[in-house]
Structure formats: structure tokens, C-alpha cells
Amino acid sequence: MAKEKTFFDKLKAWPLLLPVVALILVMAVNIIYDAANGNNPFSFFTITLQNTTANGTVLYGRIIDILNRGSEAAILAIGMTLVVSSSAGTDISVGSVMSLAASVCCVTLAGYGVSSTTELAHPLALGLLAGVAVGCLCGAFNGFLVAHLKIQPMVATLILFTAARSIGLLVCNDLIVYVRNPQFGFFGSFMGPIPTPIIITAICVAVTALVLSKTALGTYIQSVGINAKASRIAGLNSKTIIFMTYLLCGLFAGIAGIINGSRITSADSNNIGLYMELDAILAVALGGNSLGGGKFNLAGSIIGAYTIQAITTTLYALGVSSAQAPVYKAVIVIIIVAIQAPPVKAYFRKRSAAKAALAKEV
Amino acid sequence: MEKDVVLEARGITMTFPGVKALDNVQLTLRRGEIHALMGENGAGKSTLIKCLTGINDFESGEIHIDGIDGPVKNHSTRDAQNVGISTVYQEVNLCPNLSVAENLFIGREPLTAIHTIDRASYNKRSQKIMDDLGISVDVTQNLENYSLAIQQMVAIARAVDMDCKVLILDEPTSSLDDEEVEKLFVLMKSLREKGVAIVFVTHFLEQVYAVCDRITVLRNGTFVGEYPVEELPRVKLVAAMMGKDLDDLAAIEKETVDIKNAEVVIDANGLAHTGTVKPFDLKIHKGEVIGVGGLLGSGRSELARSIYGADKANTGTLKVKGQEVKINQPIDAMNLGMGMLPDDRKAEGIIGDLSIRENIILAVQAKRGTFKPIPMKKQEELADYYIDLLSIKCPGREARINQLSGGNQQKVILARWLATDADFLILDEPTRGIDVGTKSEIQKLVVDLAKQGKSIMFISSEISEMLRTCNRMVIMRDGEKVNELSGEDELTQDGVMAAIAGGEKVNG
Q: Which of B374, B392, B421 is the last residue of a domain?
């Protein structure tokens, strides 16, 4: 067994192999399509600087677009990964919580009952804080139901899934509140040449990764997710840990909500974060994480989120209408998920083992 | 195949990543025999069984079964059942939230004419099966309402009812008390009369000699030999399993503690947990090994759990080193210098998908708190130190704990608590499912810890091992602390048995 591991062996053991392969496959489709149409085959990867009237000189290209548009899903995927790991359940309220956070933020900035404004009624920081705080509050509510009242995560988060969007409408007095102010719009537009959402996502990912690596939280979350009873005997407080993951999930939903609101400079309660919970859950699954909880891989989830966005962007580039896109998306997702399914993996393992045995005999 | 042979496995070889689990192993089972499969932890007993039952895919070798032409290779437990091999595993693998009857008939429910499940008929049949085996249960009750022992019996009843030629019992007695073991033996003997070949895996040597006809011994994944039971006395069996002669298991020197002068570490006054333990008083001194004896379900585990906060005590007071304390949950107890190795390794011990290293450092990390992670280098040192100290057989510290054999898992959990350097350590069945050699190692370790000034609470079903290690014993009956034994004259097999039974002296 003392045989030196080859590069190939190491690659096979790499947990991110499949998510990355999936992402590369999607990119390959782009290259082939562009080549077939006589375009530059690498136009997918081309990043150019363009002058715009609104934002000055900014980065432009399909990759930038994917990173930009995929920001909300990537941020949600961080929280979702932790929730899935600790509680073997999903937080299906994140889309609605996004919407509520955007509403609270916009109403704070515009003032109650105002439907459209260019002036801020309160300082920007207060609005952002209110949005994030309401996200945390929702997360804490979910966490309390799941960790302390032991309600199944799907049922517990179903409450805010249904209610949060309506609470948002209540807060907005049934209006779509427009905050057409460049200060607020900044979070959905550009910081220098780079789209701000990309920067915010990078910060969220970096901070989470740092916290997980510099504290024992990652081990705790996985431990509780695998065996809560044993973790308790070993001195972990599983309730607090599960509660915290939901709180964080709410926090990230709040941040994602503000970005989305800022993009459209309004609080459109009915549309912000619509179906985003599904993208977030799918991102976690695409990242090779088991929805049964336990071991998690944050990088996998992030790649998963961008893969989903890459699929969407690719489909639009191929000329598929936004109404039909979900059909193609579903097919691609089925393939990616199937490649990662245990029986399929076992089949390929067996085949490569048989090949190795054959090679030995020869 | 020779006459009367029901199953013959030859040249079975199987490797796990990094470990050769089985190397050219053979096993021959004859009609109507009870065949002991013996070996230390990691010798390959469970792996061999899993090869027979189709859970593991072995690489080479053949299995022949009477009445079937050509070699048989099972790919699932259902395949195995179809060729007449049924298994009851070490840990009960049934559905606790289904009724006893449903558990007996899962996957083979009797149907009515219109193909709905025939509930009335299977409840009646289930009741008859259980009555025939002399197990008194209401089959319509959920399985979780019964003790682990009864659940085990249900698992056996299920296997027996599936018309098997070969019945494999993997450590069936490790969670049964003496009376239940006796019942199981009666059942095994009657099955032998009916021509069933029974494979019996156990760590209790005396049980081998009580029921078995033949013994196959494995060591480190290899076949040592097959012997008729009368040709292999205990000492030779142990020697065959360990590959060396065992001097004397009983040769452990106990430290005699001067109780009057030693510091009182734990002082419980009227401590109780409603429904499991009635109020009890208990003083435990520094450097003392205190045994807790009693039948299964007598409250011996619960006594320990109420001190540790695993089950929060509702009444009474607890003083630790003279200070009155309130323990709401295990971490509180840990911060007061306690540790507890729970009896149910699978449910409360191991964190299955985490590595050996992570499992070992978990409790130490929990004590340090979230924001003070143990540096990776230190973690690796800790893990390597304990893998070496307890000779944990594993491919390396980063291997997942659920890849290890039961005994090695137990050692990892033990390492977790040793690493916390607790002053008061509760060991609930630390030697369950562990081989003879390791058992005596653990017993020696317990005595050594006491010599270093630690206090140990040792809970075990085996009176002899508590007698070897304990200075004092608490006896539990029906959730109540009924007696305390100490001194040479009280701490005898007979004395303890009598105290557990209550009333007259029993002839041990």
C-alpha cells in the first residue's frame, strides 16, 4: 500500500472534482456553440472594458455577468450549506426573507408610505442595518423553532416562506417602494470597474471561510449534524450550534436581499428572491454535499451556485427564452446530480478497479 | 462438499483501503451445529460475515452452499436470505418506530386477497412467534418501547422465522443479561436440533463453552484453525486468538485506597432523575475505582448519567470537590473535570463520518470553546499519541471512524476522554464487544488511572472484571441504589450476585 499517489489518484480523491467538472462542462458547451457559429470560440471567457454612461468604465463579459448575477445564490448557498450540515434540513424561507429584508431596507430609506424617492429619509447605514437585522431576526426565529422546539426544518421554515413576503408587503403598504438614489444603487451596480455584488460575495465567502478555519465551528457543525446525541455527551451544545447556523442563514438572506433590492433600486416584494431558496438548495446539492447533513464542503456549494447561473446565462446566450430555460436547466441538473449519485459513483469505481486488476494480470 | 456441510467458504480475500481485512480465510458449517467464530477486534470476523451476507464484495474466494450448484456470490442481504443465510448483527438494525410485528415482517408482509397488508394475520402470527420463543411482548407496541435486550430478541426472532439454513449471530449476547442469554441459548439449541447451522460470534469465552460444538479462529484477517470445542480449552483458545500465551488475566494489582483520608471528589445527596433513578447518596473519593453493578435496566447507567448531566437530575444536590454545583448538560460536568464514555457506542459515542483525529479531539475542543481551536499539529500529535497508546488498528488518523471495527471505535472514544484529562471518568461498559486482550489492557489502564489520582466509575455487565478493578461497588436494582460493597470479604462473585439478586445468597 506504500505506493506513491499519482497526480491522477489525488485528483480522483479531490472532493471538488465533480462540481468543477460540471462547471467546465457548461463552459465547454459555450465554446462549442460559439465555434459552431463562427464566433471567437473563447468569447465566453473574453472580458473587456466598456464605457457606460451610468457607471463609467466597467468590466464586461459573460464570466463577469455570471459572477455578478450569481452573487445572491452564492451568498444564500453559504448559509444553506451550514443549515443543511447541522440539521439535515433545508431553510426554504431564504427567498422570502430576502424580499422582506429588501422591503424593510427600502422603507427605512424612503420613509413609510412613500412610493418613490430620490432622497434618503434616513442615513444609508440605518437602512442597511435594518435589512440585515430583519434577516437575522428571521434566521433566529427559524433557528428557535428547529433547535429548541425541535420542529422539522422544512415545516419550521415553511412559516416564513409563506409569511415573510406578505410581511414585506405590509411594511411597504402594498406599494413597490422605489429608492432611486445612487448611494443605495451602489450595492447592485459597480465599485470602480467591478460589479459590487461580486465584491460583497467575495467578502462573505472569505469571512465565513476564515471563521470556519480559525475556530472549531466547522467541526462542531458537522459533528452535530452527524450525531447530535454523541456530540452532546462530548460537550457540545447542539441546540446553540443549530440555532447559530439558522441565524447565519438569515443574515446571508438579508445581505442577498439588499443586493437584489439595490440592483432594481426598489423593494418589489412579489419578485425579489422568488424561487431563490430552490437555487440555494440546488447549489448545495450540486456542490457534492449530502442533504442528509454532516460533512460539508463550502467551496463546492459556491461553485454549485455559479454553475446554476452559468447554465442560465448560457441558455440565454443560446437564444433560449427565459420562459423555456427551466426545462433545459432541469435536464442539465439531472445529469450533474446523477453523476454524483452514490450508485453511479460506485459503478465507475468498480469499473476502474476492474481495469486496474486487468492491467495487473497483463 | 463433504456430507452434512451446509456452507463452505474457501480462500476468501478482501481488502479495505489500506488494510487487508481478510486473507485466504475459510469457514465450514455443518448441519445442526453451533459454530463459534472467534478472534480479536479487527481479526476479520465481522468482515467475513459481511462477505457471507452480501454486504461486502470479496475479491477472491468461493462460497458453496448445500443444494446450490456452483459458487454463490451474494450482492445483498436479500440474496443471502434467498439462499438461506440470515443474520442478527451486533447493533440492533430494526426500526424503533414500527411495531414489533411490523419489524418481524418488514419486506415480507403477508397480504390479503386484494394485496393489502393483512394486519390481523401478521399480528397473530407475530404473537405466536414471540410466545413460542418465550419472549413476553405485545407485538402491536412500538419496538422502541422495549429494552435493547428485547429488541435484540426480536431481531433474532425475525431471522429465525425466515427459514434459514445458516443463522449468523454477531455478538447477540453483548447487550443481554444472564437470564436472557440463557433463554437465547435454549433457543439456539432447539434450532440446532432442527438442523440449522449457527455461526456464533461473541467475546464471552464462557458462552462459547456453554453452547458451541466447533470453533473457527481468525487472527489479523487470516485463518488460524478450526477445532472441535473439546480439543481447544480456554487457554489455548486465547493463545490462538492472540498468537501468544496469555499469562493471567486476573493479574492486575489494585491500589488500596485509604477512603477515610482521601479527598471526596463527588458527593451526591438525594440525586434523582424521575422515571429512571430514585434518589441516591453517593460519595466517590480521589483515586478510587467504584463499580456499579446490577442487571440491565436496573438504573446503573442512569445513575451515572444523572451525575454527568446526560439526564439532568431533577432533585437532590451534587458537590464536586466540596463545592455545590448545578449541572444542566454534559459540558457543565466536563468543565468540572468529568468525562463519560456512554454504553451505546453507535448512538452516543462515535461521530461516524468524522475522522479518528476529529473524534479524539472533540471533547478537548468542546472544553476549550469554539474560539480556541486546537492547532492542527497538536491535533495530529494527540491522535497519533492515542492511536499508539491504545494500539488502535487503523489505516491512519484521517480514516473515518466508521471504517474501524467495533472494538477499535471503542478505543477511539476512550481516547477522546483520556485526552480531556478528566479527574472523574465514568466508563459505561467500556469493554463491551472488545476482545480478551484489549479487555485486560483497558482494565489495567483503569487501575493505572486510579493510581495517578483519578477517580473512575466502572459500569459493566461482567462482575468478574469489576471485581478485578474496583475498590468498592454500588449495587442497583429497579432504579434504586440498594447496596454498597467494599473490602475483600464483600467483593466476591457470590457476594455481588447475592446483592444484585437481593435476598438469599446465590451459588455462583
A: B421
| A227 to B371: CB separation less than 8 angstroms, yes or no | no
Report d(CA B215, CA B37) in Å as an integer: 6
Phi first, then psi, for residue B477 (nearest 5°) are -150, 130
| B435 and B383 within one domain | no
Q: CB B310 to CB A233 under 8 A?
A: yes
Confidence at residue B257, expressed as pLDDT on a 0 to 100 scale: 59
Residues B14 and B78 in one domain: yes
Give me A358's grid cell: 486487468
CA of B309 to nearest chain A CA: how many angstroms apart? 9
Tell me what ipTM this predicted complex has.
0.83
Q: Do A50 and A57 touch, CB atoms closer than 8 A? A: yes
Structural domain range at position B12: 5-242
Residue type for position B140: T
In a domain, B180, yes or no: yes
Q: Which of A115-124, A313-322, B127-136 is the least confident region?
A: B127-136
Same domain, residue pair B49 and B140: yes
Residue A80's closest CA among A165, A6, A153?
A: A153
Which residues from chain B sit within 8 angstroms of residue A226, using beta carbons? Answer: 351-354
Average pLDDT of the residues in A132-160: 96
Which CATH number belongs to the domain containing residue B255 in this structure? 3.40.50.300
Tell me the shortest Cα–Cα distance from A229 to chain B, in angstroms: 5
CB A76 within 8 A of CB A253: yes
pTM of the model: 0.77
**Element at A305 (helix H, strand E):** helix A298-317
Are residues B178 and B75 both part of a single domain?
yes
| CA distance linking residue B47 with residue B41, whole number of Å | 11
Q: What is the DSSP letter of B229?
A: G
B373 CB within 8 Å of a chain A CB: yes
Does B390 fall in a domain? Answer: yes
- Helix A276-286, helix A94-110: angle, nearest 10: 130
The A-side interface with B (CB below 8 A) comprises 1, 214-217, 219-220, 222-223, 226-227, 229-237, 294-295
Whether B35 and B119 share a structural domain: yes
* Cβ(B304)–Cβ(B428) below 8 Å: yes
B344 within domain boundaries: no
Predicted pLDDT at A348: 79
Instruction: Inform me whether the pLDDT recorded for A112 exceeds 50.
Output: yes
Q: Do B390 and B447 sit in the same domain of this protein?
A: no
Residue A220 pLDDT level (bands cut at 50, 70, 90): very high
Q: CA A287 to CA B190: how far, in whole Å? A: 54
Tell whether B282 and B402 lie within a shared domain: no
Boundary (domain end) residue, out of B197, B215, B242: B242
Q: Which residues of A touch B330 (CB under 8 A)?
A: 232-235
Count other Cβ atoms within 10 Å, centred on residue A285: 20
Which of A270, A298, A271 shows the shortest CA–CA distance to A76?
A298
Domains of chain A: 64-320 (1.10.3470)
